[in-house]
Each structure stands twice: as structure tokens, then as C-alpha cells.
Amino acid sequence: MITDSFSFKKYLFLLFSLIFILPNAQKKFTIVLDAGHGGSDIGTNRRYDDLGTVREKDITLAITLKLGRMLEKNKDYKVIYTRKIDEFPSLTERTTLANRSKADLFLSIHVNASPTTSTATQGTETFIQGPNQNKKNLEVAKAENDVIYLDERDRETFASYDPKSPESLIALKIQQSKYLESSLLIGSMVEDNFATKDKRNSRGIKQADLHVLRMNAMPSVLIETGFVNNYDEAKYLSSDIGQTDIAESIYDAITKYRKAMERNGSVANSPREPEKPAEVALKNDFRILLMSSPVKYNSGDPALKGLNYVLPIKDNDLYKYYYSVTNMASVRDSNLKTAKDAGFKNATSISFIPNQKLGIGYYTLEVAVSDQKLSSNSSLLNTLKDVNRNKEKGKFYYTYGKFTSLEEAVKTQKELDEKGINNTVIQKVSR
Ligand SMILES: [Zn+2]
């Protein structure tokens, strides 16, 4: 019958769709491979007579490229590299790349060194994001986070936490990561393979506050593949056999992890979502307004709860404290979250039109506030010409310069900083 054969054709078509179309429509499992350090940032290193200088940035790249080639042979995987050559991507670049690609997993590969002169320490360890649990983890966090200071762009845009600030540690402790469980799973699979397959000394899974993990919106681990200050491990890490072993162990762990996630239904087995276009920069700049206060706090003051790159702008006798600046929506949202995590519950993001000229009024720099009139041979008045003095309610206010845009004021503020005139405040004068 015609209707029957029609149905049968339809059925066949559906069957074909299921067999041939659906698997192709499946989203690939996307992995970001981050070879730690690179370029001017060598990472940890040791010199041995027979091995030469064993450098972290070379080992991490070699392992990453081997692992990437293994994954690329399997069409289920899509691999994104933060670097494939000897260069230094900023931490912002590494994490925004990972977030924009909507990756399923982020692996950062590193080499360890013990802070003491001891050469006995050896083994692997894998870090997941979390508060520092002990002093040793804090040391690893410090060494791996130190690279942040190499890149100027990171200083301003990165949600910077001062890990030494007790406030920031408390904030991190209450922060719940929804990716903690899956990060723990992939981390334990990696460490299991190192121990059973490669007969390495696994030091286990640890939690630390690592910037490169913190900013990622996906399960993320940082793998320390061995200690460069231990001769045997340095030799193993710089050998082709050692690098292949490590890459294979990580590859195998990824395969097991993906299967486990599929069983859980956590990995998209559903048809591919329409590709989202890459994030474009917004027209405006965004700063996070932390608080307004009649009190002036200098950078590092506990009132700022460990947040760095806070820009106070004085407006109508109130100091408004703005944190970070960015024109990327994703970074703005993450900076806002950082501010709230740090304890600024009413923090809100404020948009600024770049290079906007004030129609009425101007910006100036408040360079000093004093109960006493500054002596004419004070270092401030000697360094700066044309400083204005204003007396209000028994206090002397010293201001410098007239600027029509905030950017001009920030530029001069930085110049004054370099001359040793610190903690100046940009003031908006609306008359
Ligand atoms: Zn490292």
C-alpha cells in the first residue's frame, strides 16, 4: 500500500537520520590545553651538568603538543591550545579563550619545584580551584600566580585578588564552585594513571587559589607533572619517553572522564547548539562601583578587602571606589562577582563612555589633604608646579591640573605615581 510504503520510507529516513545525521550533529568534546608559562616567563628551572638547563616552559609545551596530537586523532575531540609555540599568552587571554570557546574541560600543564634547596621531593600533584588549605599549597599558588605580574593588561582587567589578604581568603572559602566535583573527578583519574600506569609517586589532589583556574567557567585542573629540582624527575620530564608517558596518562584520563560524564548525562549528547559568535568588545568601559564613602582609603587598606586596582573618584565630597575596567561583558560580570565575593554585596557595574569630554566642569587630581598648610619647600610643592590650594572646613585641599576626560586624568595620575606622588585621587568638579 502506498500509505504503508510511504510510512516505511519515512521510517527509513528517520532511521538514516538517527544513524548518520545525529552523530554528526553531536557537539564535540572541547578541551583547552594550556601549556604553562612560555616566552619571557620560563617557569621553574634547574641546571644539570648532563641535562643542561631543564625549563618548565619547554616541558609543558612538549607534553601539551603530544597530548593534543593524541586527542586530535579522535574526531570526538576538539582541541584548543592557549599556545603552540614559545610565547606568553596573558592569563586573561588564556581564560577568556577557554570561556569563549565554551570548552568542556580546561587542563593547565606545569612543572613543580620545591621551595627549599632539597632535591628529594618528587611526584605529581593536581590542583583544583579552592581556598588554600595549607602553607605548601599557598607556595605553589604563589609561584603559579606570580606570572600575572608579567603582563600589564592583566593588571588592570584581571579580577585581581591579593592572596595574602585574609579577607580574600575568607571570600574564597565561602565561594562555591559548581565545577568542583567534575574537576575533582578528572584530577583523580589523572593522578590514578600517574600512580598505576607510570609508577609515579602521586601526591594527590590539592586545592589552591590559582588565577588560571579561578576565572574558568568549566571543570579545570592544573597538573604538576613532577619536580625539576629532583634529578631523576628532571631527567624523566625532559625525556621523550617521560613526556609521552605523561601525555598518554592524561589522554586516558580524559577518555574515562568523558565516558563518565556521558553516563551522567552531563555532556551534551544533544544536537549541537547554534554556534555563538565570538564575544565582541562593548562600546563602553565598565567599572565596578564598590562603595561611596566620605573616607579616603589608600590602596591596600583593609576596607578594600584585598581587591587591587581600585580607582577612587571624588565627587561632591564622596569618594566613589571603582574596581577594574573592561569593555568585555564576560570580564565585567566576573569582576562584579569577584567584588561581591569579596564582601561588597551592593557592588554594581557602571558604564563609562570612553574619552568622554565633560560638558560642564572638569576633572582634577587631589594631591594632598592636610590640617596644616603645606610648607613651600615640601617635596610635593617642589615637584609639582601650579598646585591649587583650597581651604574648606578647616582643612587644606591641594589639587593639580584640569582635565576634560577621565582618561587624561588617569594618565597624569600614573605620571605622578612614577614621580613618587602616590595616592592621589581623581576629583570630578561639576561647576
Ligand atoms: Zn608553572
TrEMBL record:
Domain (MurNAc-LAA): residue spans on this chain: 95-255
Biological process annotations from GO: peptidoglycan catabolic process
Matching CDD domains: MurNAc-LAA
Molecular function GO labels: N-acetylmuramoyl-L-alanine amidase activity
Pfam families: Amidase_3
UniProt keyword Hydrolase present: yes
Enzyme class: hydrolase
GO CC annotations on file: outer membrane-bounded periplasmic space
InterPro entries recorded: MurNAc-LAA_cat, N-acetylmuramoyl_amidase_3
Superkingdom of source: Bacteria
Catalytic activity: Hydrolyzes the link between N-acetylmuramoyl residues and L-amino acid residues in certain cell-wall glycopeptides
EC number: 3.5.1.28
Keywords assigned: Hydrolase
PANTHER family membership: N-ACETYLMURAMOYL-L-ALANINE AMIDASE (PTHR30404), N-ACETYLMURAMOYL-L-ALANINE AMIDASE AMIC (PTHR30404:SF0)
Protein name listed in UniProt: N-acetylmuramoyl-L-alanine amidase
